[in-house]
Amino acid sequence: MSRDRKDTSAADILSVKGLKKYFPIQKGFLRRVVGYTKAVDGVDFSIKKGETLGMVGESGSGKTTVGRCIVRVYEPTEGSIRFHANGKMIDLLELKGQERQGMRKKIQMLFQDPFSSLNPRMNIMDIITEPLVIHKIGNKEEQRERGKFLLDMVGLSADHMNMYPHQFSGGQRQRIGIARALSLNPELIICDEPVSALDVSIQAQVLNLLADLQKELNLSYLFIAHDLSVVEYISDRIVVIYLGRIMEIAYSDVLYTEPRHPYTEALLASISKYEAGSSRRYILEGYIPDPSNPPAGCVFHTRCRYVKEQCRHENPLLEAHQEGAFVACHRFLELSLSGYDAH
User: Fold this and answer.
1) Cα torsion through 240, 83, 114, 198, rounded to 10
2) Gyration radius of the chain over CA positions
3) Sorting pLDDT into bands at 50, 70 and 90, what band is 197?
4) Segments making up each domain of the chain, as ranges
5) Phi and psi at residue 18, in whole multiples of 5°?
6) What is the pLDDT of residue 3?
7) CA separation for the pair 239, 250 (Å, rounded)
8) Domain boundaries 12-106+186-327, CATH class
9) Which residues are paired to 27 by β-bridges?
């Protein structure tokens, strides 16, 4: 069930414009650049304060690269990433030195695999308080008290603080990752497939925890996932991304009932793929094309059952079609696509 809509008048906390990330392809003994993998190829979106923006797409669609560009794990090839701080929008890509370090406290990342992202040689208290040590916040006693507070906040006990990651379950390790992400009081958290490695029953617990923390701390999330059934529960709006480009943006309740892009329709159909008695209305065949050699025209046309000649040659622009909703499809006005039927 999608959430009730947030106040649409809230200010943007993040605005991404024209974001591109190309990885060079090198060959030969001299490692000469012979081409580029276009992981992200010009995306525009924004996140409002207190909002969760879901970002979905198949593996290889570029969604994780978007998240890593925002936190500067990857340096973008082109574009702007503007963040609201000190009463104004600041382009993160223009920051250097201390300014860049200071802004890192406001944006944190929650990773997919809660085991590989935690240092196995550090105990839980050291893992959670490490960001405080790096940024020289508080003395040892204050850092320790902050660690105990964060453990309690994510549903763990101070009794756990001297234990090590291998002594915890996957769900508990992800709670530790959440506590570490919260240690510096961030305003925006990039959640990169945070529940995909967990059992379904544990997924719900972690999603509930993230939703509760958002209300309590007024957090904003970019929630990256490949499964639309996961982002439905937590997202206010959803971005559908394919081959490094945005196909559709819509409010969660609208996207699930009235998709406007054929790729969104295909992702929705896959939700009920393994449910007994379900009818698969749209079997998405084939694979995402090579991002180093994307198709001409609409990048989805090689797998789209509604394709026409215009789609093969002309790249559709991302157009607004109603409040807060955008779609990049030449035929969105004439197509009647199937939404997700939960029954």
Assistant:
1) -30
2) 21
3) confident
4) 12-106+186-327, 117-185
5) 55, 35
6) 59
7) 7
8) alpha beta
9) 32
Distance CA 260, CA 322 (A): 11
Q: What is the pLDDT of residues 49-85, one digit of tens each?
A: 999 999 999 989 999 999 999 999 999 999 999 999 8
| Predicted local distance difference test score (pLDDT) of residue 287 | 83
Tokens, residue 160: 């756990």
Please tell me the distance from the alpha carbon of residue 210 to that of residue 196, in angstroms, as a whole number.
14
Handedness of CA 153, 157, 158, 160 (dihedral sign): negative
Residue 190, CB-side half-sphere exposure with 13 Å CA sphere: 20
Q: CA 189 from chain center: how many Å?
A: 9
**pLDDT surpasses 70 at 6:** no
pLDDT score recorded for residue 219? 97
Cβ neighbors of 146 (< 8 A, separation 6 or more) are 129, 132, 138, 183
- Inter-residue contact 104 to 95 (CB < 8 Å): no
Provide the percentage of residues in the chain whose pLDDT is more than 90: 71
